[in-house]
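Lab notebook, entry 480. We have the chain sequence and a SMILES string for magnesium ion, and the next step in the workflow is to get a structural model of the bound complex before anyone spends time on docking refinements. Request logged below.

Task: model protein plus magnesium ion, output structure tokens.
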Amino acid sequence: MYIDMDAYFASVEQASRPYLRGKPVAVVGSGKRTVIVASSYEAKRLGIKTGMTRGEAIRKLPSLVFVEGRNNKYVDTCVRIHEILLRYTPEVEICSIDEFFADLTGSLLLFPSPADIAAAVKREIGERFGITCSVGIAPNKLVAKIAGEFGKPDGLVAVEKDDVERFMEGLPVESIPGIGRKMKEALNALGIRTCGELRDFPVSVLRRRFGIWGDYLSFMARGTDPFRARDQGGLPRSIGHSMTFEKNIGDRVVIRARLLELSGMVARRLRKEKIVAKGFSLTLRYPDFTTLTKRMTLPFYTPNGRIIYETVTALLDSFRLKDAVRLLGVSAFNVRRFAANPSLFGGLDREERLWKAVDDVNDAFGECSLRPATTLLCVRHHWVISPAYRPVCFFS
Amino acid sequence: MLTRVGERVVAGVVFRKEGRKMELKWFLWKGRKLEIKETTYMWRERDGRELIHRFVVTDGKDLYELSYRQEGLMWFLEAVETDG
Ligand SMILES: [Mg+2]
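Result returned:
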């Protein structure tokens, strides 16, 4: 079962503020330069899209109402929806702040049918939060997600095992998650518009054109999920943080200070999730939205903030900045579970202990109570939650 | 229009037996008693170790955001929002 909240942030705001109901609403970040992160169905219908700037949106729709997003509100609601789902099955996966997969295989001994569970979940979410969601039920995650999207908004679409091919047949190829505009155009050029046409297309031709993706496409078109066995014990593929600045930053000293802060945030997440990484990347975005990423893989795994910082500043030094930057991002990839003491070099033990102490202080007194003095060079930034954000359960 | 307030207030709350639910009934602000018609949203936030419960309520006319700090057992009126 796949569950996705409809226009999540905007719906929460409409539920909180009755006077916004039925009106086009856009949720924005708290800074001056933020973009639209979510919009209500009323706004979507009138052409408002995620990622538009305030100015663009106002020109398009003067009656649009802007509200400032409240991340904590959305995170807490996500945690509570997760709790609701856990009453029906222990197998719940949080995919993003407003999407969940619940495996109901084991629940069918206790509840009459998946559709009954879905209806109960929808009712409870509606009563408690005043928002709607769309649910897809199918034999695998791929078709469940497609069914969920198909029924949007406020839908409940159940696809039985024997109906999967028939359900998929008529859908446009871009209903398959992962098929973006480019891939859609490439398929259209081959005369493939629907999943049925994709299914019937010779897989050898697809393979020649798209490599291994050709095989995946053919599988997915008939509603088989090729990524079933992908999950490796819940290990994230990468962990990253980014910041968009109120004012573009041209000064390398300030950029370094920000990288120190970001490296610290990434290291803290690594420590929290008990993983280590050996790949690190630096992303920067210029005011014209050109975005560049450089990566480096180290010969060893580490959770250490200083090493992350040194790696990303080395990457920074290899850039010839052609302008000030509006966004910086640091992420860790190539991760594995933290097994033994990862400090390979002498002298780091003391630093590890120091960071452990910093973590404890921040846990007790709030994020950023204690941080490197260099980061004070920068005024506190405003941030907007990423849709891919997954909350850690801190309310247990 | 949203106006930040950030003042301590006295609030009347009913703790329901069923569920772990708090229901706000009224609060005193500027010498007035405001009766709460409906709680439109509630959520929790962490401030370090402290748990804060936040409520958006309405007296049928304006919206009020109230917060309850669990550690100090204190209620605050955070903001008032009037339509238009
Ligand atoms: Mg959604």
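Notes for the group: Chain B has no helices and seven strands. Worth checking against the assay data. Residues 2-81 of chain B form one domain.
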